[in-house]
Amino acid sequence: MKDMQGKVAIVTGGAAGIGRATALLFARAGAQVVVADWSEAAGREVVEAIEREGGEALWQRVDVSRDEDCSAMVDATLRHFGRLDIAFNNAGVSGRIARTDDQGLDNWHKVIGVNLTGVFQCMVHELRAMKAHGGAIINTASVAGVKGAPYSAAYSASKHGVIGLTRSAAREYGKYGIRINAVCPGYIQTAMADEIAASSAPGSSDALLAASALRRAAEPGEVAELVLWLSSDKASFVTGAHYLVDGGLIA
Ligand SMILES: NC(=O)c1ccc[n+]([C@@H]2O[C@H](COP(=O)([O-])OP(=O)(O)OC[C@H]3O[C@@H](n4cnc5c(N)ncnc54)[C@H](O)[C@@H]3O)[C@@H](O)[C@H]2O)c1
Fold it and tell me: What's the rounded Cα separation, in Å, for the pair 78 and 125?
């Protein structure tokens, strides 16, 4: 089904995990996709995978914590594809797993810089590009954006911030036909989840899975399906919302 034919979509963090799965799904739905990431080899591989399936994609190197990169990403999209309809602001880092007083200010600035300031900067440039004709923005928060996450205070604060940013901007830009929502993944099987498991106390990942209703981790594609729906006209009355995709972890 080519629901997104004629649409142009940016995916940040598009080189791996949830972003990669979403870039592939967007392309299968007919969108022209900008794969934006700071990891070049993996990002170019995603572009090639899309092209092998007959889709259209552009590689764009970006560090979302640098405003000039975010601006260049949107400029390159407009130059190459002529418009911007959808943006999935998803690039993120987990940061140090440590007690709050041991996390360090360097970790705080890094995590907030990528996860929150990065989303803000991407949105500013995307909103300017969408204002004339409308669009849809989806930001990646987390279950840690609706509940405290012990030993991940900076990460949890950044994701709570993403939800506040999403809701505030949604109220401002609805009049321009721009819908802005967030997704809150639970335990998704990606490199980030492996990294967190490796630096957490032994058994804590198993405990997390045991606490979820479905008692399993998700594939990245299961988050991508929600992002696709929120991006599509099927979600035409949905804005300012945040959606759990967590297998019942928070329930
Ligand atoms: N995996 C999970 O369990 C989980 C749960 C909740 C939320 N999330 C969120 O989902 C998003 C995607 O994470 P993932 O699990 O797919 O992880 P991942 O590590 O597989 O992918 C993250 C991608 O973001 C890119 N990236 C990181 N910092 C960047 C920067 N400054 N500029 C550009 N690109 C950058 C990485 O290169 C990588 O390709 C993140 O925002 C993460 O916080 C993940």
Answer: 11
